[in-house]
Amino acid sequence: MNRPIGLILSLVLLYPAGLWAQWDDGLLRPFTMDHRAAGPAAVDVSFLLDAPAGKDGFIRIQNGHLVTPNGSRIRFWGVHFTDWSRGSVEIPPKEDAGMWAATLARYGVNLVRLHFLDLPSPRGIVDSTGNDSRSFDPRQLDRLDFEISELKKRGIYVDLNLNVGRSYKAGDGVPDFDKIQWGKGLTLYDSRLIELEKEYAQRLLTHVNPYTKTAYRDEPAIAIVEILNENGLYLGFHPPTPYYDDELTSLYNAWLERNRSSAQLSGLRHLASVPEGAPIPRLTSQEAAAAPDQRYEAEMAFYMDTESKFYADMSGYLKNTLGVKVPITGTADHSHSSSPYPMLASLSKLDILDGHVYWEHPGSPPPLNTPMVDDPLHSTVVQLSRTAFAGKPYTVSETNHPFPNEWASEGIPILAAYGSFQDWDAIVVYTFEPKLAADWKPYLGDPFDISLDPVRMTQMAAGALMFLRGDVRPAQQTVNRTYSNQQVIESRRLPRTEQPYFTPGFPLALPLEHAVRIQSLDGEPTVALAATGTNPIVSDTKELSWYTPAGKSGLVTVETERTQALVGFLKANRKVLKNLAADVTNHFGAIVLSSLDGKPLARSDRMLLTAGSRVANTGMEWNQEHTKLQNQGGSPSLIEPIAGILTLRNIEPANTVSVAALGGSGKPQGEAVPAKRTADGWAFPIGDPPTTWYLVSIRR
């Protein structure tokens, strides 16, 4: 996740007229998360985890998916540990590590992506006191070791990132060390940077954790190792200094000498208007679109070959030299405004494909702050689905609906449902920021941090039940697509109007109806594909429906035996599910009902109900046009409670049904409220006291 700090105060949010006007700030009520509260919580889904992590051996790949050593399928539902907010920490102090690990387990998190470890201390593990970036800070490394041991105890695996945000110093022997920041792009081709990447990997992966007595290359609680984060080479890439620009041009010309004939080289020089014997310049981004095919295709082939050789060399080093035993990811498909296929041609040769996407990232161009349920064809589901390969595990290691988007309650339930339908192997939310102070004031201080978000945090438990347990069945049909090598290369010149798939004619509703995979990037051209184009868009399992009446006021329904949900515009779409009906006053929100005991809802004795809408901070202010925050606000965090009557339908005979509103620690707020038996089922009110989650108990 590469972004500047402090985006929130300059966040530009363009709001369609009429949408934001429906929000009534008078409905907002204080509700805060409390992760430090002692004692057991009423809702704890840590039973989904199999502790300790890696107890039977290493995660491996079988039949295109991640499995445990005995061949049992394993999915990962995760978060990151980062520290972008003031008062947060990248690596928790040892006295808090167990508390944070237990918290994540209680919400069903079974994977932590350890991101930005290569930052200088006191944030990352790189010693900030020396003249280079090649040594580890002993205290930070000890904290990391203890943190991983505590995660492992509770059944939480680790996705270990190698090169993410490393910066360089004079002692590193890196030209222009003070001008290249994180070296994006450069780390794929510069020999000194690659040498340092390998050295870092060697020092970290051969380090023995004193608390587990195991080197990280031999640690079965490490599920995945990632080589780079959000990195790549592309046509028009501009290195930050002349040294690296000249180096890349030299590498390009050396590649041309090896891979093009004398006649072809003469033709390229002619097209570039340079004399014989002179180096052939690389295309600028402005030249690429209209460049002659010969120049364009040659340079594209060079970048693809350079990336392929880097990943082959680095993955070979990790596995063959260092002895890494778990699956390896190269980097993520992370830019959905352009074609991914040239990069995927390299990444697909590794073990895992990975994707990143955010619904209206704060750094993206407008329009922003719109509901995703109104735009299913460009949803995070459709964007992420473009990357999955047939026969390869697919992970989503970064995603979120960033704050202060007022429709963010839609994000986690929709991703959990459709991620299960698409049969992905991991979904990891960016990010969870452990707070250093025990008396930290609860408010949302970062767009991406879910740790104190009263809606996104409680939805993590519901999402874990849905995704890890496989409540939504995988698609009955998988639609594979193939691309010729020529299509792959030319796809980078397609206009942005073809996003996110960059496959002309591809029906974007297809990933909401069936599973989709890439079969080949070096085969026959993609054939014409078709989707039903109906409204609602219904999954082939008939468990998921996406309604967009007149292109607005959308709603997603989830209807399975163990989880049912209504997500989107609730008043405009009064849908009744098999076991759930809602008559609420809120225009928008997400209501998710899940069995906690593994039984179908009709027979379940304990259920988790999450009900979330808008989240804000006290004193948070928009400008007059409601397009930009004037004041981020502060503590306490506020929610718009989902208020009204819910009804449990078609429940097997019961003596009593009671509903307990839960507080931010997961403990009941007051006495449980009895439900009333009606002709339609068991009805009960929600919304008072204000909360985002409830425990439903049934006695038979």
Structure, described:
This protein is α/β, with parallel strands linked by helices and 700 residues long. The chain has 3 domains: 59-234 and 306-475, TIM Barrel (Alpha-Beta Barrel); 242-297, no CATH class; 537-699, no CATH class. Helix 1 packs parallel to helix 2 and helix 10 runs parallel beside helix 11. It is globular and about 90 Å long. The model is unreliable at 2-17 (pLDDT under 50).
Question: Can you tell me the CATH superfamily of the largest domain?
Answer: Glycosidases
In the predicted model, the low-confidence regions spanning at least 5 consecutive residues are 2-17
Major β-sheet annotation: 9 strands, antiparallel
CATH class of the largest domain: Alpha Beta
CATH architecture of the largest domain: Alpha-Beta Barrel
Whole-Å distance between the termini? Answer: 49 Å
- Structural class call reads alpha/beta
> What is the count of structural domains?
3
How many alpha or pi helices?
A: 12
Shape by Cα distribution: globular
* Integer average pLDDT: 94
- Percent of residues in helices: 10-25%
Trace the largest sheet across and list its strands. Answer: 16-17-18-19-21-22-32-28-29
Q: Estimate what percentage of residues fall within beta strands.
A: 15-25%
Instruction: Count all strands and give the number.
Output: 32
